Amino acid sequence: MQLSREALLRAYRQMKVIREFEERLHVDIQTGEIAGFTHLYCGQEAVAVGVCEHLSVEDKIVSTHRGHGHCLAKGCDVNGMMKEIWGSREGLCKGKGGSMHIADVDKGMLGANGIVGAGAPIAVGAGIACKIDGKGHVAITFSGDGACNQGTTFEAMNMAVVTKAATIFVFENNHYSEHTGFEYAVGTQRDIASRAEAFGMKVWRGDGTDFFSVFETMREVLEYVRVPGNGPAAVEFDTERFFGHFEGDPQRYRGPGELDRIREFRDCLKNFRKSVTDAGVLDHADLDALDAEVLAVIEESVAQAKAADRPTAEDVLTDVYISY
Amino acid sequence: MPKMMYRDAVVTTIAEEMARDENVVCLGEDIVGGMGTPGGPEAIGGIWSTSTGLFGKFGADRVIDTPISESAIMGAAAGLALSGKRPIAELMFADFIGVSLDQIWNQLAKFRYMFGGKTKCPAVIRMAYGAGYNAAAQHSQAVHQILTGMPGLKVVMPSTPADVKGLLRTAIRDDDPVIFLEHKALYGMSGEVPDDPEYMIPFGHARLSRAGQDVTIVSTGLLLGFCEAVADRLAAEGIGCDVIDLRTTSPLDEETILDSVEVTGRLIVVDEAPPRCSLAGDICALVAEKAFAALKAPPLAVNPPHTPVPFARELESAYLPSVDKIEAAVRKVLSYR
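YS: structure for the whole thing
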C-alpha cells in the first residue's frame, strides 16, 4: 500500500461523506420534503473517489443522473449540494438544477446530467481543450452500463480517438440500466471495456468495490492519457448499486438476498476498512472518529438546507442568458 | 466598401476572430475536407466554402475536422465552451439537427440556467438551411421555429453579406450559445461589406430595409430579398412598404415591429418554415395582442404549406413563398374591407 496515512484517511473520509450523504437523502426523501427525482450513488463510492483523488481542479469531469458521488469527490461543497437538492436559492445552482444538474465549473465539475449518454460528447470537447492547452490535464466522463448503449457514447469514443482528445471514459458497470439487467441490455454479454477497445482505445478493468483497485488502475490510466499525443483511454469498473434506479423504485428485479449480499461482501467502505486495518496502517479508532465527524457534517448540511432561503418567483427569470 | 460574397463574409469573419482570439476554434464534418485521403487536407474544403484556408492558417488543433457524428460535434462544442474555448461548430445541413438536438437543446442551451448562472457557454453553432436547391425533404428545411422556441439559445438569420459579417462577429464574441443560420441559396450573394475588423451588429435590433406608410412586411434570410422586390414593385404604384429584416429571431426586436404597425396598421410576416407554431404565427399574435387598436386588417402569415419540402423544381417553387405570393398577400391586406 503506497498511500500515506493522510491520503488513506482522506480517501476514506471522501467515500464516507458520499455514503452518508446518500443514506441521509434516502431517509429524508421519504418524508416528501425533497422534490423531484433523485438517483443515489451509494455503493459506487470507491469509483468516484478512486478516480477523483488523482485529479486537480484543472482536470474536468462530466457526470450522470447518478451524480452526487462524482460531485462530492471532485470537490463540490457538501452544504451547497444539500441545499441544492432541497431546492434552496442558496444551493450550488440556486435551486434551478436540483439533484440531476449539480455543477461547479470552477472546480472542474462540468455537470451531472439528466440525459443518459449525454456526458461523453461533452467530455470529448473538454478533452480536446485539454489537448490544445497541452498541460497534461484530462477530461473524464462517467457512464454506466445504461449509457454505454447510447449512440452518443459510441460517437464520442470514435471522435475522441480520431481527435486524440485527452478524454477518459470511465464505465461504472453496476449491472442495472434503470431496471434492466446488464446481461440482457449489453449485447457483448461480457463487458463494456471490449467495446471501447474496438473503437481503438487502450482499456483497463478494475474492481469498483475496491478503492485500491480503482486508485491503482486510474494511476496507470492517467499516466497514459496525461502524455500529450496519446489520446483517450477507457476503463471499466465492476461495481454495485445499493439502492434502486431512483428513490421510490420498488426494485422487484433484485434476486433473493441480493441487496444483503452486496452490502455484506461488496461494500467498498467495509472492504477499505478491512484492508487498512489488516495491514496495520490505520486502526478502527481512526476510522470510527472519521465516521462520527462525517455524520456531523451531514447532519449540519441538512440543518442548513432546511433553514436556507427559498427561491422566489422572480428567480425564475434570471440566469437564462448573460445578455439578451 | 469592398464587395464580398455571403460565404466569403463567413470565412473572413471566422479567420479575423481566430487571429484575434486564440480561444476560438472550429469543428465540423469536412470543414477541412480531404483528411486521410491521398489528396490530403483541404483537397476539397468545406462543401459550402465557408472554411476555406482556415486549416492552413490555424492548424489542426484549432480547425478540427470531425467524423460524421453530429451529436459528438455539438457535445464537443459544449465541452469546449465549458472549458474556456470559444467553439464555432458547423452543422453541414440544418436538417441534421435531428440527430444532434439533445446536445443543443438539453445541454448547451440549459447549462447556464441549470447551473445557477455560474457558467458561460460561448458556442456558435453555424448551420446551412433553406430551400432552393431541389435538395428535397431532408436537406432543405428552415429550422428556426424549433430553435427560436428554446430558452437559452440566441438565433441569428442574416440576409446579406454585410449582416453575416456584423452578426457573426457578435455571435463569436457573445458569451451565450448562438445558432447562426446561413441560407444556402444566399452563399453566392454579393454585396458591400465593411472591412472594419471590429464591425459588429448587436442582437435584437432589426433592420428597416425599405420604408413606407401602408404595410409592414417582416421577414428574414432568403425571403427578405423577395419582400424587398415586392416593396419595390409596389412603390411604383405609390404603395409604401416598411420591410423589416429581423436579423435575429431570438432575441426578437418587438419594438421595431410594433412601431411600424402603429403607422401602417397592416402586417404581413413572411416565413420559410411551415405554418404551424411558426415564427410568422408568433409575430402575428404579438401584434394582435400589443397593437390591436392600430390594425386596419388582420395580420397575415405567409408560410409554405404544412408539408415536407418537395424535390421537383415545380414542386419546390410551389412550396416556397414567392415574390408573386408575397405581393398577393400585400394586396389582400390592403384591400381588407
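YS: worth flagging: DSSP finds twelve helices and seven strands in chain A.
IM: good catch. Also The domain at 5-309 of chain A is CATH 3.40.50.970 (Rossmann fold).
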